[in-house]
Queue: 3 jobs
Job 1
Amino acid sequence: MRMVLSVLIAVMAHGVQADTLFATKTLRARHVLTAEDVLLKSETIAGAASDPESVIGAELLRSVYAGRPILLDNLAQPTLVDRNEVVRAVFTLNGLTIETEARALQRGRLGDVINAMNLTSRKSIRAEVLANGELKVLP
């Protein structure tokens, strides 16, 4: 126990370096990160991402300037449906399936419930965003 305590005190006194991801260029909000967008440096910054594999494919919520750290709070799942995009909407109930086109009235990520307009009836619908970018109309 005494040895563990002395090692812990030594580590705290000298600090521990962790890897941190930095932007290689200025990245705009809504940009989906790729491997070319990030650079791993041996620095410790609280709240910053440290694993490239966990951030590649994530979407930025706010812009990040070149050389600045990529913060975890600034990352989200990528948007699958953009506002005003025409997408396929599917309604299923008791074995009956109806497919139509709808215009998304909001942006949506996987699992988000958004408002859309059925282009055939011009009625407003609520729908869940699916992984393939389609909408599952809610009853």
Note: Residues 80-137 form a domain with the SH3 type barrels. fold (CATH 2.30.30.760).
Job 2
Amino acid sequence: MPCTPEGVRQARQHARSTMARWGEPGERTETAALLTTELVTNAVLHGRGPEVRCHLRRRPEGDVQLRVWSGPGTTVPRPRPARDQAVADLEETGRGLLIVDGLSSAWGTRTGSEGRLVWADL
């Protein structure tokens, strides 16, 4: 997908259609779509390169893993605790990885010569 806001929309739709094709329940499908949105948005904002790759993988035990790759030199922002809740409530960004942490059973990152992989398990 392109490393643009349009790519985020495409990735979200990809997650929804894949989960629906697998027969996943609506709530789980929407959780996958939200996780996809957050991870691909971070890749677009902090990534390098013209594209972002997004892949959902169904494991034999029924878990689903979402993987998002972005180009070399990509940084992954760290979840930041709110210093002042009143100020944090007004901020428009900075909650994506907190959402990922709250909705996934596990998540993490890996860096290699091809770029950065961020994954989340449902």
Note: Residues 10 and 25 are 21 Å apart (CA to CA).
Job 3
Amino acid sequence: MTLGLVLIAAVLVGPRLSRVTVRMAARDDAAVPSALRTGVTSALLAGLLAGAVGLTGLRPATLALAWAAGAAVVLGAVDLAMHRLPDRITFPAYAVCAAALLADAALLGTWAALVRAVLAAAAAFALAAGAAAISPQGLGFGDVKLLGLLGLVLGWFGWGILLAGVFLGLLTGAIASLLLLATRRAGWRTAVPFGPPLLAGAVLALTLGTVSLG
């Protein structure tokens, strides 16, 4: 039953996310995604939604993970295409995730997790903003806002999950950069989008954290 709902949601929402992605990347409201992109987007969303339900079951916090999953699909693709993390995706994700986690706390008493999530979001945002101020070419403000969002979501699960997510994101980014250098698809001065590695690190942290706790 749950798997069926996940597949239905992915089939219904995936094509819309694909359209949003190509239109933001092309800055053309008439752009149409290819069938391949729509299929890949829907499949990726299905996997992330299944993971969200597997982590939390069906509860208000699941909506936070599900919305963050959809936002991650769009943000990652747009960042890869044009090195930009649109506020039109990031800011609503903050609002929906915070509201869902607040509802979870009100209904299920997870106040400690909510407070930790808010503190983690503030800490991640502040530290990232400091790093961006020191090295603006290394970390853009879009990445700073993304880290705040990841702090909110990962922090709800625990400080260890958040730290693991940031570490794995940095590691993924470093490995990707080395591969691009080795294949001569990028040089030492080439700007590499940082959003996708951060998002991949978050997914890995949640997956590995759940496995270790299980």
Note: The chain has one domain: 2-213.
